[in-house]
Design brief:
The chain is of the alpha+beta class and 138 residues long. It has helices at residues 5-19, 22-26, 34-39, 46-53, 91-97, and strands spanning 58-61, 67-80, 110-123, 129-136.
């Protein structure tokens, strides 16, 4: 299925924002601080989190017996290209990798870039969230 860039952005954002629905549960819908959002889940049941954001992407057991559940969300964002022609990249390098290269050809005004947020929640034997860690664009 070939989606337009607009449809891809919308789909990516929807998946990403599913994870951020925790903001509503935390009562801090106006914040963009991931620590405030994710820390609101400390001492809450894992099942409540899964109900809100969906199934985790993976899980594993640590040496101490605790389990870690990982949620990964990717969104596509539109970024402006700062160069105005492919020549800014160097004619020789561009011509050597793209047989369709035309000297002076303009770059697209925008490009689509994927941004990923990974959140790991550690739970105890009762499936109560005890800690979290995140990385990426959260």
């Amino acid at each position: 299925m070939n989606l337009s860039w607009g449809d891809r952005i919308i789909r990516g954002r929807m998946k990403f924002y599913n994870l951020l629905l925790v903001v509503v549960m935390a009562g801090c819908a106006t914040t963009s601080n991931p620590d405030q959002v994710f820390s609101a889940w400390i001492d809450k049941p894992l099942d409540d989190l899964i109900f809100k954001v969906g199934q985790p992407d993976s899980s594993y057991t640590q040496n101490d017996g605790s389990k870690v559940y990982e949620f990964v969300r990717t969104k596509e964002v539109r970024q402006k290209n700062w160069g105005n022609t492919f020549d800014n990249l160097g004619d020789l390098s561009r011509a050597s990798v793209d047989p369709n290269y035309v000297q002076g050809e303009k770059l697209p005004e925008y490009k689509i870039v994927e941004q990923t947020c990974t959140v790991r929640f550690k739970v105890n034997s009762l499936n109560i969230i005890k800690s979290y860690a995140y990385s990426g664009y959260c």
